[in-house]
Amino acid sequence: MGFERREILLILGVVFLMVGLLPFLAPVYSVIVAVAVFLGIKVVVKKRKKQLQKIVGAGVCAVCGSKIDNNKCPKCDLPSGPEKG
Questions:
Q1: pTM (2 decimals)?
Q2: What's the gap between Cα 1 and its chain centre?
Q3: 78 in any annotated domain
Q4: 70 pLDDT band (50/70/90 cuts)?
């Protein structure tokens, strides 16, 4: 299975949550809560990753920190941009 390290940590955390809920809830309900927490975290992370990708785009300029559009920095690639070097 091609899990990343953070996904394995998330699964282990959810399993520990499920085991911790066993004394208070029936096993079926603790599994349902654990799966809901897992899916909720996955949805939030995917949404946040998509939002960051939209904001950052192709990357940021190392000189001024602006968002790069069309493989060019809107500030540094102007003829009157900052000195490079």
A1: 0.65
A2: 20
A3: no
A4: confident
